[in-house]
Design a protein that fits this description.
about 400 residues; alpha/beta; 7-stranded mixed β-sheet; 4-stranded mixed β-sheet; about 20% strand; binds pyridoxal-5'-phosphate
Length: about 400
């Protein structure tokens, strides 16, 4: 651990504000992390209930992940795609073994995985002599910031000033089967949805709706694609969130939690889609990086050894119970609680100054984020303990209670 001075953090934030694009508004400079906690360069420790935005799936500095990364770094850090590496091949095989999918493509982020899904859908129909280009997504969906992924993203807030976007994408309201029934046709290549729209405010797709999408896609010969970038890797309990919903998509994307914080995006597709990305049709220089793949293999081992699906289900039920109590408390500025496993949201009254609330939580040692304008999002590491959860919720309760004194 490095020793730090209180001034380090302020100086670094000043530099950041001067030399980095103002796309983010960081309030902290983090120097290290252990488990579910992170520590600023000013030496202050925080309980991270954002889990590094759903990325730090097994917590910070997990010894098994650190060992896997270190060992691989001592072996080889990069191989080109002219060859391949053992870690990526073994990871691909393991992902196929634990899912209904038979084909894997590696890249480096959620956006990039969704770009590949979009290309896969159109190219598959091109290759099979039934050219289709229309893709249907949702008005409240979030699929990333690159042009293809941004074009799939329905929320205007993300699209402002970036047009023209990719052609041929139609947006429909989620959970409205009538609207998509009117939009889908024999020209539709694919429908893409998240099973829980986290960025939109933790909006859950109704299982009945997802079953309806499967039926509509089958009727029209279109592909059903799930963006599991945030919901995947046991975030809701099962390895992929659709496993408990009884609907299997034709392909899905995962990213955030898969490599414990190292950049990795993955497309998982059913075997019949293999001709959709023929030789030379797609590539990623860093995709399948052996260090990231070694970290991901360690994550899979930890998921199995610690039975994280069962842990997420039980700790998620505890979190859900606590958020429902906060939501129902008339003394608090709360409206509703929703979500599954360790992807949950607590909706606040619209008059609450959420940035001030987040700052007060931070000052009290807890990191949370806001999605959909007024919804506190909980995406802690999957191995969050009940003690940590109790402490985090107690802090949140105290800060929310403050609003009665006009502090928020
Ligand atoms: C975070 C996220 C993305 C974008 O992932 P990046 O790695 O930031 O490109 C796409 N879809 C969903 C559902 C996400 O949560």
């Amino acid at each position: 651990m490095t020793t730090t001075r209180d001034t380090d953090q302020d100086q670094l934030l000043d530099v950041a504000a001067r030399v980095m694009f103002p796309t983010y508004r960081p309030a902290l400079v983090i120097g290290h992390g252990r488990g579910r906690h992170v520590t600023s360069t000013a030496g202050v420790e925080y309980l991270d209930l954002t889990g590094g935005n759903a990325v730090s799936s097994v917590g910070n500095a997990h010894p098994q992940v650190t060992a896997a990364i270190t060992a691989q770094a001592e072996g080889i850090v990069h191989t080109s795609n002219l060859v391949c590496n053992d870690q990526a091949v073994l990871l691909a095989a393991q992902l196929c073994e634990r899912t209904p999918f038979g084909r894997v493509f590696f890249c480096n982020s959620g956006s990039e995985a969704n770009e590949a899904l979009l290309k896969l859908a159109r190219r598959y129909f091109h290759e099979t002599g039934d050219p289709r280009t229309q893709v249907i997504a949702t008005t409240t969906g979030f699929h990333g910031r690159t042009y293809g992924a941004l074009s799939l993203t329905g929320r205007a807030k993300h699209r402002i000033g970036s047009g023209p976007l990719v052609d041929g994408i139609t947006h429909v309201r989620i959970n409205d089967l009538d609207e998509i029934t009117a939009a889908i046709s024999r020209r539709t290549a694919a429908v893409i949805v998240e099973t829980i729209q986290a960025e939109a405010g933790v909006i859950e797709a109704d299982p009945h709706y997802l079953h309806g999408l499967r039926r509509l896609c089958d009727e029209h010969g279109a592909l059903l694609l799930f963006d599991e970038v945030q919901t995947g890797v046991c975030r809701t309990g099962p390895f992929l969130s659709f496993e408990t919903l009884g609907v299997v998509p034709d392909a899905c994307s995962i990213a955030k939690g898969i490599a414990a914080g190292l950049p990795m995006g993955v497309v998982l597709a059913r075997e019949f889609l293999a001709p959709g990305l023929p030789g030379g049709s797609h590539a990623s220089t860093f995709g399948g990086n052996p260090v990231a793949a070694a970290a991901a293999r360690a994550v899979l081992e930890i998921i199995d050894r610690d039975n994280l699906p069962a842990h997420v289900a039980s700790i998620g039920a505890v979190l859900s119970g606590k958020l429902r109590v906060l939501a129902a408390d008339p003394a608090l500025p709360t409206v509703a609680a929703r979500g599954t496993g360790l992807l949950q949201g607590l909706q606040l009254r619209p008059d609450i100054d959420v940035q001030r609330l987040l700052a007060r939580l931070r000052d009290s040692g807890v990191l949370l984020s806001v999605v959909g304008g007024t919804v506190l999002r909980f995406t802690p590491a999957l191995n969050l303990t009940e003690n940590e959860l109790d402490q985090g919720i107690a802090t949140l309760h105290a800060v929310l209670h403050h609003h009665t004194e006009g502090a928020l």
